[in-house]
């Protein structure tokens, strides 16, 4: 069946929408393959606006990995803004890919990457515009398989009704494995139709097909059990872990859009995983163990990536980049190589210690020097012990004053509010810490123009973490604590003016909480919100708490549960959690014990990092057959022979 | 490239320069930027076959080498057609007028012709537009050196499809094709049912007598 580009029809609508450039594709390094020559066709979706989605690493990597394969085609699609959505509906234009403007409904797979839960309503818009039934149960052999991945896939239950399948963990290998299964199944003449394919995927043990599991509930609303409802379906589905990052040096040819995007840089992951053990951090828990990319591969990737893109900045990504065993050599090596070329280096996450200041100085040698960010996360020593973020106040003051002394004028401190066992006083300590930072900074530098910005986010308990059982602090409590803190800072005549204060109100955190730890019954809430016009929930100007609240009341009432039940309720040790059958490798008993350890307040038990201390049996390595992979390799980056110097 | 803004194009150019490895000169200062100056950039939503910019390099390279390297590195849809050494005077001085084509799907050629005649017959046609400096009112008639409706071609013959060609002087405030369309609407009620497709065909020095726009990169004094 020939598949035509819809661009002609789209082009007529574009002059009538905002930022039309985001819908025309044509990015440098994008790929358009011949439709009929491909056996397996993927549409990859990042369910947010183009400007946010286009730099996404996960999508870029899969896009390249898949397109490199013979007989496989991958294109990209993003959420369209409501202005274009309305016109597309009016003129019958379907959800399209930006590469060749092909209708998404014509692909074999729609692969969706969920970095956050706030993109769920955008998935529904895309499905609906694509002419794909919202519910997986209503789809026929005509429709693409809707397959989700990304961090939110570690509890996909709230969107289980809308997804045919999900995968956990690193996408590279499993995307190719899924591709080969589809190829075989198509070559054999699609035996068993759609369910035949889903059964083959489920049988691998590495793909979760929600509709192959029945959920039963206790009279009080808690889950009784998840039970596979057909033979060959595993009780638990395991995550995927790529074990040699050097063998997967993607992206090699980064996408460079004409339109402006949120990250205008070439990003390279210098390692995956983090074992610092911060108890709130889902990313750290689900990506274990640490696997480093070697310094030489990082160097090669940066060289190739800059050549292929023309970007002026390099981002060294990971969950805690300063922890790479050879970060100093990487930073110095790259700064030397690109000296005089106006190429900036950035490290998105910085740890609180003095070593970081040297590193930051090195990184900004060739580029701009804006501000430094540190994340103590908790305002009081006690709070930091609870979350296992082991930074003492002395460390923090010493680090920050060193930054001021090194010439940085602006320091940003990141905290969370609403953490387990938190009191008003813990939050007020944030203010005390900030004033102490300014006082010490003024003393060291003798200047009054140094600034410190306190940026605060609401804590949302996440699945597959030691805090998966806790009751979320109600957003009104969080808001009240933060108002108190703000008032205290404002009243401080001496230091208040040097301290910036940033926080968003807490309502979205409650909805994020619902979507993070919800189960299948939450699907009806998402659908109701979407039907009522809910779109782009990650954008404050589009998010409506009232709408979510009202839809939740209505859709959950028949089950005898509500918004609070999913968010502020503390779970018991033995309660079946909606993600218990999805295996991130973490030992449930270890998670529980770690949660209990957190509760000892001042004496909370500290967990060290297993990179430097013996394994403490979180369970991941033995159950996933993985191991820690770190350097040092002892090698150095050699100067490049040809670098265009300006 | 119709939907790319000037900023989008500028960013693409800077990246192409880096990819091509051309030795661009950077400005000094806190946040150095490449020395590129633009003149007469086309507004967003308009296609163009004639955009110009001036680039300072830190090494002496043959213009053709620079052109070829840049052309290779620019995204699809942007071609680098010609490069010469910058001469005396600014680029803007050489770009005094533009030749525009405006396609009006759904508009009858005869109807467009009447509107054009009415516009040309007027002494002044004042329009209002929101500019960066707020709402401004200015004349569009004086800037228009030529304006005519092309005879309907065979492709478009079946349905109404008017094509306007016009030469507009570069003035301050700039008179843009959509300002002229606003003018045509004001003097003759011309209201296209769907968005017009505007293309800049040429830019350069206008010979007032003949109404011809010359090549701004004409090869005088190129071998400095
Ligand atoms: S199993 Fe041991 S070594 Fe592996 S991530 Fe867990 S604590 Fe670290």
Automatic annotation (TrEMBL), chain A:
PROSITE patterns per UniProt: RADICAL_SAM (PS51918)
SUPFAM superfamilies (UniProt xref): Radical SAM enzymes
Domain Radical SAM core span(s) in chain numbering: 260-502
InterPro entries given in the database record: CHP03960_rSAM (IPR023862), Elp3/MiaA/NifB-like_rSAM (IPR006638), Radical_SAM_N2 (IPR045784), rSAM (IPR007197), rSAM_horseshoe (IPR023404), rSAM_sf (IPR058240)
CDD domains referenced in this protein's UniProt entry, alphabetically: Radical_SAM
SMART domains according to UniProt: Elp3
Superkingdom, taxonomy of origin: Bacteria
Pfam families with a match to the protein in the record: Radical_SAM (PF04055), Radical_SAM_N2 (PF19864)
GO MF annotations in UniProt: catalytic activity; iron-sulfur cluster binding
NCBIfam families attached to this UniProt entry: rSAM_fuse_unch
UniProt-recorded name of the protein: Radical SAM family uncharacterized protein
UniProtKB/TrEMBL annotation, chain B:
Domain of life, per lineage: Bacteria
One Pfam assignment: DUF2344
Ranges where the DUF2344 domain occurs: 1-177
Record-linked InterPro entries: DUF2344 (IPR018768)
Matching NCBIfam families: sam_1_link_chp
UniProt name for this protein: Radical SAM-linked protein
Organism annotation: Allonocardiopsis opalescens
